[in-house]
Amino acid sequence: MSRKVYIPRDAAAVSVGADAVARAMTQQIASRRLDVTVVRNGSRGMFWLEPLVEVETSAGRIAYGPVSVEALEDLIAAGMFEGKHHALCLGPTEEIPFLKKQQRLTFARCGVIDPISLSDYVSHGGYRGLEKALQHTPETIVEEIVTSGLRGRGGAGFPTGIKWRTVLKTDADQKYIVCNADEGDSGTYADRMIMEGDPFVLIEGMTIAAIAVGATSGYIYLRSEYPHAFRTLRRAIAIGYEKGYLGPDVAGSGKRFELEVRLGAGAYICGEETSLLESLEGKRGQIRFKPPVPAIEGLFGKPTVVNNVISLATVPIILEKGGPYYRDFGMGKSRGTLTIQLAGNVRHGGLVETGFGLTLRKAIYDFGGGTASGRPLRAVQVGGPLGAYFPASLLDTPLDYEAFTERKGMLGHGGVVVFDDTVDLAQQARFAMEFCAVESCGKCTPCRIGSTRGVEVIDKIIANEDRAKNLALLDDLCEVLTDGSLCALGGLISLPVQSAIRHFPEDFDRPAPSPPRPSSGQSQEARWH
Amino acid sequence: MSKAQEWDAERARSRIQELAPLPGALLPILHALQDDFGHIDKAAVPLIADALNLSHAEVHGVITFYHDFRYTPHGKHVLKMCRAESCQAMGCEGVIRHVEDRLGVKLGATTDDQLFTLEPVYCLGNCGLSPAVMLDGKLYGRVSSDVADSLIDNALRHA
To answer: Cα distance from B144 to chain A (closest Cα, Å)?
Structure first.
């Protein structure tokens, strides 16, 4: 039987040479007339080891990494296809501590299977959740999700089952399932990884959601910055239709579910669910007033489930194993697993899926191995650009929605961006306001204009102009933004700004730099012309 | 590398007709036109407005709302450089300044020889391998100034 060698097709792996390694591997196999097949899998999420090449042996999969084109000949000569030792050999993949210490439920197949092979998906437990769902009534599917305690993984943490229940109970001639795949937060890539590494789990989750609430049509709204994920999703959806898992008769159930992937166009705000719906309708991505909530009046005015990629991709395992199984992971009101994404200045950047409650310190040191630069850690931003900057003294905070809220932070989508001691928090606060100015949809005045004023006030603080007065003004501005904005962009941008001031006051109390550092970002004028 | 063709009203009209029946067709149409022609010609606005029964202002409003859509052609190569937090933590601002100095333009502008357009981007989802850039749709990780130079050199060789 032909041996298999796995080389990821994941965009991150490709960004450090996985395609070149796969091409060279194919050539080596051909010229040596070996009976070896190259499989392009997803990523295991250990990015410092990418390109990570795995070989299937009688003793399981053996990993080598990071593998370069130059090292390939030597690896093959050393006997990599028999799993033999080499300086780049990492031993059995599943025994690598970074992976072994995780609890992978949503990501169980990611990096293991060929993402666009439906038979791989099914032979690794795929579509068992749908099979179970088809034995349920819509009401009992929803109750299973409620029991699981699953909360929206996009950041807001709203109970998924409650949202579904509202859509189920709202009568309408048409209902929709919309997947929010506009993963715009810096430091996050879990959505991208699962869409590229196990797209069928998302398709299955959306199908179950559709059956639960009575929807027949679904859209995946994907950010345009993810061209690899777009191609993978398109292929997976085409295969789903071909094999009868999508279309007028889902898996022979007589139920219809049509699914399409749509591209965004580079607007961060479209990750906000009502902006996303406007964008899907072909309009400017300006946010809507709530109420009505999308569960009652969503896409094209119809009841709509809008869920994040990870929320939907977690649905199949909940249906397969039952709500209580999933609920038994985690802590407090944060049930199940969290996909932590280690990013920024971290030695071992990658994806860690484990029950809620791991401390930030354990995530960064036990998994991440500390800073990449080797310098002391000074700040951590959790939850994307609208999340707070925490100092090292808060590293014992458990990764849990409520624990972060209590400390005036936000867990968000689980992105953890590490900064070493070279970071200047005054500049980070300035960037937060600048980002808000660039990405504001313009609907609420405090966000549209306040963000630009925020940049100016922080510039004055940095330049030591009336510092005390301007700090008080900034505080006031943050309050106006928080209370006067409809959505999370204006509403939460004070988190990074005020946490920077609160935890790192020394960065706002330095002598004025001379001359002032020019921003490398383009001006607003440049952007609009 | 850009494979855009010259503006062609007939071709544009047939692309618009083909996509107009989709629910919420405007974004798919704009993406299709930009993919085909490299930018959205102003002459497309009335064609789209007619097909979708929208005002010219509504179409213009959508085009200018989204960072991706542009009325003018970009350079032969598009280099998107991430300047979000994860990449900042790994020194992207230094790499950006280096590239700006080398090409003689700031983020958001195109070089005089029309070879390179530099664009800021806020996250490419490659935050485990920061700093990240995307050159002509291809993603790169751990991009130091040296790596950026070799990417530019390589693009120039194939210019």
So the answer is: 13
What are the residue boundaries of the structural domains of chain B, listed by start? 9-65, 77-157
The predicted structure's pLDDT at residue A155: 87
CA distance, residue A288 to nearest chain B CA (Å):
16
Domain A3-100 has CATH 3.40.30.10: yes
At residue A522, the pLDDT reads 46
Q: Would you call B59 an interface residue with chain A, using a CB distance cutoff of 8 Å?
A: no
- Whole-number Å distance between alpha carbons of A432 and A424: 13
Query: Hey, is the C-beta of B127 within 8 angstroms of any chain A C-beta?
Result: yes
Tell me what ipTM this predicted complex has: 0.97
Confidence of residue A523 (pLDDT cuts 50, 70, 90): very low
Task: Kindly determine whether residue A265 and residue B31, on different chains, have CB atoms separated by under 8 Å.
Answer: yes
pLDDT exceeding 70 applies to what percent of chain A? 97
Q: What's the mean per-residue pLDDT of chain B? A: 95
Instruction: Report the pLDDT averaged over residues B125-149.
Output: 98
Multiple choice CATH, A330-420, 3.10.20.600, 3.40.50.300, 3.90.930.12, 3.40.50.10610: 3.10.20.600
Would you state the pLDDT for residue A88?
A: 98
**A430-445: burial string, b at 16+ Cβ within 10 Å, e else:** bbbbbbbbbbbbebbe
Tell me if A58 sits within 8 A of A28, measured CB to CB: no
Interchain contact, A47 vs B141, CB within 8 Å: yes
By Cβ distance, the residue of B64, B90, B140 closest to A15 is B140
Question: If we measure between CA atoms, which residue out of A99, A32, A114 comes closest to residue A72?
Answer: A32
A–B CB contacts, 8 A cutoff, strictly below: 179
Q: Which of A266, A418, A419 sits opposite B67 (nearest CB)?
A: A266
| Side chain identity at residue A58, one-letter code | S
CATH class belonging to B77-157: alpha beta
Rounded to whole angstroms, what are the CA distances from B64 to A91, A279, A442?
52, 13, 13
Q: Does residue A466 sit in helix, strand or coil? A: coil
Specify the CATH class of A425-528 in words.
mainly alpha
Tens digits of per-residue pLDDT, B82-96? 999 999 999 999 999
Choose among A12, A267, A438: nearest Cβ to B126.
A12
Interface of A with B in 473-492 (CB under 8 A): none
pLDDT at A519 over 80: no
At B159 the pLDDT is 64
With cut-offs at 50, 70 and 90, classify the pLDDT of residue A515. low
Quick check: bond before A115 cis, omega within 30?
no
